[in-house]
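Appendix B, Record 12. Input sequence as logged:
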Amino acid sequence: MFQITTTFNHNTELLTDSIHPFFFGIESCTQSHSYGPRTRDYILIHFVLAGSGFVTYNDEIPFKVTAHEAFIIPANISCHYIANQSSPWSYCWVAFYAPSSLLTNFQSTSSFPYHYTKINSVEIRNIILNILRLHSSFVPYLDSSGEFATEKLHLATDSDVSFFFEMSSALFKILAVLSAPCRFTDSYNTKRVSEIKQYLDLYYNKSLRIQDIAREFSLHPNYINTIFKNEFGISLKKYIIQKRIHVACELLYTSNLSIKEIAYTVGYENQLDFSQIFRKNVGCSPSTYRCNKHTPAL
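Logged structural output:
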């Protein structure tokens, strides 16, 4: 393993709220080599060069990552990853401090929210090797071809400003490579979100869980909720509730159905649950709403 870490104070006034590097590294893992579970206060991205392994976030379902793919570990999220026993992965990585909102600019290309496919990992590898080669402490570990020998070295450096900017340049090049596919996925995601909304409008009165909706569209629950919220400004759960309340208001205003029948029609088997949710969202009980003959406005 080769890794370079900057000890540049990321809390300085100059760097507050900015995107700046913490460390870069590269390693060929042994069979079943694992790390975690643990959380970090920085963002960490692994780019798989060869082989494969498995990644798990917060004890959820593990997913497989293979060559020319990447996975992001956001700050403050527990993650565990392990190399495949038959074909252990080799990967390079970059860690950096940045506002958590940065990750909303990267749209996953798989059904898992922080899993990216079709990554130009060779380009990433060259960027990271170049920054490692720039530091004089790594020169003795280079062979005649410019590659690193098999020895391991973990270097922490109190970087001068010039080298810090070199590391920052490498980080932004990597982020540019990672974000490039997002330029082509906006229209696709817009189409998918529209399909999801149509599905909810059709089946809002059924027993819907986010996991069920995600399975219907072959997407990860976290990812499907993220792209829906980005498009409409509310979560899937909130949208379903608002849709049910909107239809209930129309029925209270236009029909003679009992409140129990309306509750059942919009997806609530328990009238008490319906009344509580209605009051929370509308500000009065269903019976009061009907008596006052409010015009549906939700």
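The longest helix spans residues 161-179.
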